[in-house]
Amino acid sequence: MSDKPEHAKCLIIGSGPAGYTAAIYAARADMKPVLYQGLQPGGQLTITTDVENYPGYPNGTEGPKMMEDFQKQAERFDTDVRWGMITSVDFSSLPHKVVIDEKTEMTADSIIISTGASAKWLGLESEQRLNGFGVSACAVCDGFFFKGQEVAVVGAGDTAAEEATYLAKLCKKVTMIVRRDEMRASKAMQHRVERTENIEVLWNTETVEVLGEKTVEGVKVKNNKTNEEKTVPVTGFFVAIGHKPNTDIFKDYLEMDETGYIITKPGSSNTNVEGVFASGDAADKIYRQAVTAAGTGCMAALDAERYLGAKGIH
Questions:
Q1: Catalytic site residue 181?
Q2: Is the distance from CB of 297 to CB of 114 less than 8 angstroms?
Q3: Cβ distance 233 to 241 under 8 Å?
Q4: Which residues of 7-32 are buried (b: 16+ CB within 10 A; e: fewer)?
Q5: Which residue range forms the structural domain that includes residue 184?
């Protein structure tokens, strides 16, 4: 590592809707932000084919295209967008220190975390191959495309129950695939599933394979008590077994909940560490939408700007 690490007034870690929105606001406030894109530049939206619920795109758009637009807008105001990943941090003293790609050290007066969260997957080859072609991890994002069709939801927690009842309003039939003989979901959510006539629950059932060449045509499942296999004809396959926030490198310094979501002070993006702000899905386990992530990215940049102003850093 060099003797004198590079210094930034504002460092943004991550490049989804939250990171790029934070960059747009920070750059316009003359904070000269440096943004590291991380492992998945553009975040989860780059694996989403169609986005129809983001305001300002009356005909919808594609996730990767939308993230390109966000990046161009951030760069138009001179955000320094860089390829690379923050691999470790040291928030024990000011200015904060980070290490990029395990070799380059950098310091920053303010840091905005927008590292997002990754959907948990079953790990099937067919699931990854058909991801975006009938396989999804977000009913609110993609349910509309399956109007009047039959779909399956994998999972047994509140998220799965919520996704199934949401899809039941749009789809002809929803089949829930539950591994055990009971759900982990709260009683209230279980009752909602039970009361919804077009939801069928397959208990003690595991997914063997998602079927289809170019799009989802069905799902092969196995009863883990009888070992009996059968095919459920569906055109949509929703994986709802949870998300994991990409926050492991911050765990020694930041307050988090038991899953790893960063806890922010109510009504702000402030973390428990001075000068460190959290935005997007790394701090949001409830909404997890592009538009809410962008909103918190704006909040983080405004909070960081106020912080730097109060510190007399111009």
A1: no
A2: yes
A3: no
A4: ebbbbbbbbbbbbbbbbbbbbbbebe
A5: 121-239
1-11: per-residue pLDDT in tens?
A: 447 899 999 99
- What is the predicted pLDDT for the residue at 288? 87
pTM, two decimals, is: 0.84
State whether 33 and 10 are in the same domain: yes
Q: Which residues of 230-255 are buried (b: 16+ CB within 10 A; e: fewer)?
A: eebebbbbbbbbbbebbbebbeebbe
Query: Given a cut of 60, is residue 122 above it in pLDDT?
Result: yes
Please tell me which residue in 138, 171, 284, 303 is annotated as part of the active site. Answer: 138
For residue 257, give both structure tokens.
């909940």
Q: Are residues 12 and 98 in the same domain?
A: yes
Q: Are 283 and 224 contained in the same domain?
A: no
- Omega within 30 of 0 (cis) for the link into 95: yes
Whether residue 10 lies in the annotated active site: no
List the catalytic residue out of 141, 281, 284, 298: 141
Instruction: Select from 239, 261, 294 the last residue of a domain.
Output: 239
Boundary-marking domain end, from 186, 221, 239: 239
pLDDT tens-digit profile of 189-217? 999 999 999 999 999 999 999 999 999 99
Tell me if residue 141 is catalytic.
Answer: yes
- Residue 145, φ and ψ in degrees, nearest 5: -70, -10
Give me the chain's average pLDDT, please.
95
Q: Which of 10, 109, 142, 298 is catalytic?
A: 142
